[in-house]
């Protein structure tokens, strides 16, 4: 039996405390309760087989190293689905936000809102997550994207990417404990390379 680590709990919390509407992320205090610390999960390891997980409402598919914990949120007509897999080092997964008629997203604002949500539970400066060298660009298909490395004073490392798909937005994230940089990097890249959109059925590398 494995308890959810702080990284896993805070990832769930951060994903659940922000939704997007009108092109701006805002806090939703009703979603602020963290996942139960007593929950048991199966963690991924090097031998885990990556399998496809499809968000049925959007048709977006991503490969994950195990069966994800799934959490659904709805507020003011905006819905989000969170797919996270606990790993030996932390967590990896993606979030799909439904964003119809919201216009172009403020991806820097999305990143900052997510960090603010994550850091609400930080008890010291050492556990506060910060972005490193955020880079705006586009995917191979031309969708606006924002990438950032992540770090905290306690050694937490990670990566996050936001991709604006118009009626949807994807957030891809991998977070790990001190000393797990190599595993975090590898799993994050594998997740990015396994995303598939419903528009043409081809696998997109983000």
| Beta-strand percentage range | 35-45%
* Spatial sequence of strands, sheet with the most strands: 5-6-7-11-10-9-8
Pattern of helices and strands: HEEEEEEEHEEEEHEE
* Outline: globular
Indicate the low-confidence ranges by residue numbers: 20-24, 26-46
Structural class: alpha+beta
Overview of this protein structure:
This protein is 18% helix and 39% strand. It is an alpha+beta fold and 206 residues long. The strands form four sheets. A seven-stranded antiparallel beta sheet has the order 5-6-7-11-10-9-8, sandwiched between helices. A hairpin with a 3-residue loop joins strand 6 (78-86) and strand 7. The longest helix is centred in the middle third of the chain and has 13 residues, at 107-119.
Task: Describe this protein with a few key phrases.
single chain, 206 residues, alpha+beta, seven-stranded antiparallel β-sheet, globular
Quick structural gist:
Helix content is 18%, strand content 39%. It is α+β, with helices and mostly antiparallel strands and 206 residues long.
